[in-house]
Amino acid sequence: MKQAEFFSSRWALILAALGMAVGTGNIWRFPRIVAQNGGGSFLIPWVIFLFLWSIPLLIIEFSIGKETRRGTVGAFGKLLGKDYTWMGAFVGFCTMAIMFYYSVVMGWCVKYFVSSLMGDAALSQSREFWDSFTGGYEPVLYHLFAMLVGSFVIYKGVTRGIEKANKFLIPTLFVLLVVAAARALTLPGAVAGLNFLFETDLVSLLSYKTWLEALSQSAWSTGAGWGLILTYAVYMKKKEDVVLNSFIAGLGNNTASLLAALVVLPSVFALAPQLGLSPQEIVSDSGPASTGITFIWIPRLFAEMPMGSTLLVIFFLALSFAALSSIIAMIELSTRIFMDAGLDRSRAIAFVCTFGFLLGLPSALNLNFLNNQDWVWGLGLIISGMFFAFAAIKYGVNRMRTNLINVDGNDVAAGRWFNYIVTILIPVEFVALLGWWSYQAVSTFDPEGWWNPFRTFSLGTCLFQWTVAILIFVILNRKLYERSVGREAEGNDEAQLV
């Protein structure tokens, strides 16, 4: 297979990895999850799971991508053999399914940035503005814009597209977050938000729910198990340090999340009393499509702040940049899979852009559909993460650590701790998280309709969609292998005969 491009430097690769990880989940989901799970009590397990779930999975993804030089489908087939290609297909499809609605969310971010930049007074009536916007056809146009911009970056290739975009987006995003946090922390009453964020409550800390929510947030936010890092690793140089890059990506992602919390929570606690509202109620309000803080409360609160219109522009620009850097990675993952199947980059990106737009239309037009897809495939990432752990176990964790991870030139090596985490802790975490979620769905969340595959939020809808996807990929397993790996394998066999 022709390997056309590599990232030009370690920092180019790290910025791309940070762009993959740092997205809207850091800015619009993290502050709400922190608020709902005890503030500082949540931060402790959240940091622990960074090291016991996310970073080990990032290490696995980096090593598999660098070794196989394939997207998710071909990587599983090449590393584990023909029988396991379907696992890589599930991983890839799970992230593609997220891409279909994530571009809609990016469109929302761009819409709010444009409206705040233009000084649209209607933003202060945030609930009405949201309902009017999402109730029409405007989200379709912004969804199309998101897909076109992301696809254009991927069309330009690795060094002129992905690398150049992230060299601008990620430093600018962090600067914007720092500026916004500095302004939020100078508000009268902002210290109450800081106390809420960092104070530890023993009851919450000892709650199993806090720990499981922390694991879920870490898995979602870092991009561990998505297949995105695997895809970027296809373009990393042979002697790049897998372990150090994984730690930098994971820690950078958590830093962005904390910066976002330092923007949102102090602002809410400082400004909510001026509206006669409870800060705790605002930060825990998920709103339609989990938009409560971001698209409903932030515009209303910033309207009460001196120079709040400027901060609003900065906030939504940062949010748009975060969304773009992540959608770029999702589009590249999809494109890489079709390139492995024989398409050139131009044809592959045209295919991905077209079908990404079409399959994202239901989410752009119907919030209930978007909520359902976010529910199903967001949770599906836990299965994807377990598939990566299985790949390492099947290949041999010690063999992977010795031959693929700890290569010559590494600054940091993976010790035996990596073996124990992958073979013991990650499977235990997977069973605990999925088991707890299933129990809650049946006993508490939806005891009467948990089995219904047509409910927006139910255990049944997840099991139904996951099962259909897995069955299709198992049936197509042989063809998937032949298209993504088989031709190269045949060529290698012929070369050996000669």
Largest sheet: none
SS-based class: mainly alpha
> What value does the Rg take, in angstroms?
22 Å
Got a strand count? 0
Order of helices and strands: HHHHHHHHHHHHHHHHHHHHHH
* Multimeric state: single chain
What's the N-to-C terminus distance? 19 Å
Strand content: under 5%
Q: In CATH, what is the homologous superfamily?
A: Amino acid/polyamine transporter I
Which CATH class? Answer: Mainly Alpha
- How many domain regions? 1
Low-confidence stretches: 490-498
Mass-distribution shape: globular
CATH architecture: Up-down Bundle
Fraction in helix:
over 70%
Task: Summarize the structure in words.
Helix 1 (10-21) packs across helix 8 (158-185) and helix 8 (158-185) runs antiparallel to helix 16. The protein contains 22 helices and no strands. It has helices at 10-21, 24-36, 40-68, 72-80, 85-117, 126-134, 138-155, 158-185, 190-198, 202-205, 208-222, 228-233, 242-271, 279-284, 292-302, 308-340, 345-365, 367-395, 397-405, 416-445, 459-475, 477-497. The longest helix has 33 residues, at 85-117. The protein has 498 residues and is mainly alpha-helical. 79% of the residues lie in helices and 0% in strands. The chain has a single domain, classed as Amino acid/polyamine transporter I (Up-down Bundle), CATH 1.20.1740.10.
Descriptive labels:
single chain, 498 residues, mainly alpha, Amino acid/polyamine transporter I, 22 helices, 0% strand, globular, disordered C terminus
Summary, kept brief:
This protein is an all-alpha fold. The protein has 22 helices and no strands.
